[in-house]
Design a protein that fits this description.
The structure is a homodimer of 156-residue chains. By secondary structure, chain A is of the alpha+beta class. Chain A has a single domain (4-146), classed as Thiol Ester Dehydrase, Chain A, CATH 3.10.129. Chain A is 21% helix and 31% strand. In chain A, strands 1, 2, 3, 4, 5 and 6 form a six-stranded antiparallel sheet that branches. The interface between A and B is medium-sized, with 33 and 33 residues. β3 of chain A pairs antiparallel with β3 of chain B, so a sheet runs across the interface.
Amino acid sequence: MRYYEDIEPGTVTHSPRTYKVTREEVIDFASKYDPQPFHLDDDAAKNTFFGRLSASGWHTSAMMMRLMVETMQHGEPQAGLGSPGVEDLKWIKPVYPGDELRLEMEVLSKRRMKSRPDMGLTRSNNRVYNQDGDLVLSMIGYGLIRVKDPDAPIEN
Amino acid sequence: MRYYEDIEPGTVTHSPRTYKVTREEVIDFASKYDPQPFHLDDDAAKNTFFGRLSASGWHTSAMMMRLMVETMQHGEPQAGLGSPGVEDLKWIKPVYPGDELRLEMEVLSKRRMKSRPDMGLTRSNNRVYNQDGDLVLSMIGYGLIRVKDPDAPIEN
């Protein structure tokens, strides 16, 4: 298990696979969670700057999360405890059916939680690219992670 | 149709209904997009600060989006054109199966796009509450919206 102590700021990790976006999944997600016409129907999308059917930004975020979990569980799994939130979630380019997404995670910094000596907080820059190398999504994410030795002094 | 010109900063709008969170949907979403043990299984969740099975933060965000779309389409529908992103997305309290979520949207400001005179950008504070009135999610969202009269001078 990889704990707080094992996280090295500056490390860049890549998702172990790509995520293939299908038309069925785009429409299924949008029908449930983002039923705006341009995420459901080609004709409605034609007259917007998307040009054709594209994934909801929340769907792209969810696909990124899937890649994040796989990245964190790849090899030695990370002792993740959830997340309090994200900053600057940007949907930079549309994501279309047929796209293949990959994730790059860069650890920016980490600190122990003074209120919870058994937990640490990491700050990462997550970037999602499509098959053409275009950046389609970026965000700054926070992650909680278990500390291996909670009795060690907090040196933030 | 409600256009850019019809948006009044300071307006607070409430979702026309609540969203009932089910155990099936929590597990279904997490299986697809956030397969961390504490979003899939009660026993795994027991030893985390969630205490029991809780929804992925991305699932809560997706349910918020559903309420947003219904809020924007309620009565006179809004001429929305998508969103470039959000700031400060905070998952403040866990969301559990059985919870009922409601949304409050407050328009903070708006401006015309200099590069696209036919579009405006709104900045809103979105807040999601559970049935006990606890704030579970908040974020600052940006929304693109069609301008009714693109030839009107830009006065930002």
